[in-house]
Design brief:
Mean pLDDT: 85
Strand content: 25-35%
Bound molecules: zinc ion
Number of helices: 4
Helix content: 25-40%
Largest sheet: 4 strands, antiparallel
Shape: globular
Distance between the termini: 19 Å
Length: 168
């Protein structure tokens, strides 16, 4: 590595960690600060807060194309926390799949008069699955993204202290 290469420091403010785009964090679990066996590269997305007034509309691809910002960060998870988040992701995808099945069945079958609300229920379940996946089943969340940096939430206090000491 070149000596004159500009190194952007990671910064910690409260429970928020600021890292540069594409940063590779140390091999420590972000949830418990124990040694991490797994390094996960995660794509994070963020939209400006004012977009929330549009509610679910923000999930539409055309809106996302213009306002959504993306970033990558690689972080560590210990085997225990890796299992937990894998399981939560599995649940989230199962909910999404259930929503898709209900919506599809609404369009392919016209036999059941009982299922008048099936499309509506399917859409609600689909959204719930997406929201669960984005906000609960994810180890870290982006609270701000621009071209050079990401601000992330979800790291434990011990880990944040460790990162702060690392940069001193
Ligand atoms: Zn852990």
């Amino acid at each position: 590595m070149k000596a004159n290469k500009k190194y952007q420091k990671r910064t910690v403010l409260g429970n928020i960690l600021t890292v540069k785009q594409g940063d590779k964090l140390p091999a420590k679990c972000i949830k418990c600060n124990s040694d991490a066996k797994i390094g996960l590269k995660q794509k994070l997305t963020w939209i400006p807060t004012w977009m929330y007034i549009f509610g679910p509309i923000r999930f539409y691809p055309i809106i996302n194309k213009f306002v959504m910002r993306r970033g990558f960060v690689t972080f560590g998870l210990c085997p225990k926390h890796y299992k937990i988040f894998n399981f939560l992701q599995f649940i989230s995808w199962s909910i999404v799949l259930l929503g898709i099945i209900l919506i599809t069945m609404h369009f392919v079958s016209n036999i059941s008069a009982l299922m008048n609300y099936q499309l509506f229920i399917g859409i609600i379940i689909l959204y719930l699955g997406i929201i669960f996946g984005l906000y609960i089943a994810t180890p870290i969340k982006a609270i701000y993204i621009d071209k050079t940096k990401l601000k992330i939430k979800g790291c434990c206090k011990k880990y944040l202290n460790f990162i702060q000491k690392l940069d001193k």
